Amino acid sequence: QVQxxxxxxGLVQAGGSLxxxxxxSGRSFSSYTMGWFRQAPGKEREFVARIGWSASTxxxxxxxxxxxxxxxxxxxxxxxxxxxxxxxxAVYYCAAGTWSTRTADYSSWGQGTQVTVSS
Length: 119
Description:
Elements: E1 2-7, E2 10-13, E3 18-26, E4 33-39, E5 46-51, E6 56-58, E7 66-71, E8 76-81, E9 90-97, E10 106-109, E11 113-118
Parallel strand pairs: 2-11
Antiparallel strand pairs: 1-3, 3-8, 4-5, 4-9, 5-6, 7-8, 9-10, 9-11
């Protein structure tokens, strides 16, 4: 398993940008699919983006605004968020697992970082 720590959240105005980072420790980081999920108050945790060895996918709700990337040498995953909207407000989680958009397929989770977008 890997241990994950997110950073980079905060308060931003609508239309602004944030870059979330996820630092991993442990073995075999490069073999995991890394995902970003988010959970707004009163809602279920939902898929945002995932990245494997050579492919990535972005949820339609953020496509064109968010980008996921990874640096295997540094054991880091990033989520670049542009043109933020108030509906993007949530706790964002980094996760390690298999190639999936389901939370159940991710075995390791970070503690989450709060993103708040004001209108």
